[in-house]
């Protein structure tokens, strides 16, 4: 990326696309200054690759975060606040997600609850709790307009949530989707950009081996799209190539 935000936070950063984002954001030509790589179990076996990255790159700060737990989100926000101070947080990437492979018939209250807590309440509480740091970034920034270098929330979502595409996508993916975008209007008045990104069908644990692309291609595309975002794309639903997707 040519121009990077100074401070970035990524949820679900220990594997899959989150881990690849950390990698590309710190190993690129213009690495971010401070990257908060958040995951549920920083000392567990699933965070070994992230720990190795953090050892190599002192600008990667691993923070414990369970996005389905408001207490954990609040704690994380305090830790980040203490580190960024009045400079604030430029870019919050809500990437962590849970996939419950259930059809409507199979869905249980427990599965639905975990899905909603992780995929819906998680990004919502993250946005709420990190708002002071995003506002601080707007205040500290001299950059006009809206951008990910100034202050932004990017939600990694899925084109499976598109109602216009549901006829084509439902037969190949019968699991229950969701989407969140309503926060965009409210954040606009603070000049905080809010957009949704579909990473493509990617060969990660979630995407499976039959996915169409690998994580590096997806993340290279997404980071380049993030770099190009301005107020024109506020509340936009884009894919990793920057193509606008229908709702
Ligand atoms: P993976 O299943 O590979 O990784 C999911 C990540 O989310 C893991 O780091 C996992 O952590 C984390 N996570 C799950 N629950 C929580 C929680 N409660 N708190 C914190 N972290 C949590 O998924 P991908 O990397 O493939 O997906 C990344 C994003 O891209 C998701 O938002 C997904 O919906 C989206 N996406 C992916 C597609 C694909 O083809 N791969 C297609 C469309 C959208 P842990 O190791 O602790 O479980």
UniProtKB/TrEMBL annotation:
Listed transmembrane segments: none
Superkingdom to which the source organism belongs: Eukaryota
InterPro entries: Fungal_SecMetab_SDRs, NAD(P)-bd_dom_sf, SDR_fam
GO molecular function: oxidoreductase activity
One CC-aspect GO term: cytoplasm
Protein name: C-factor-like
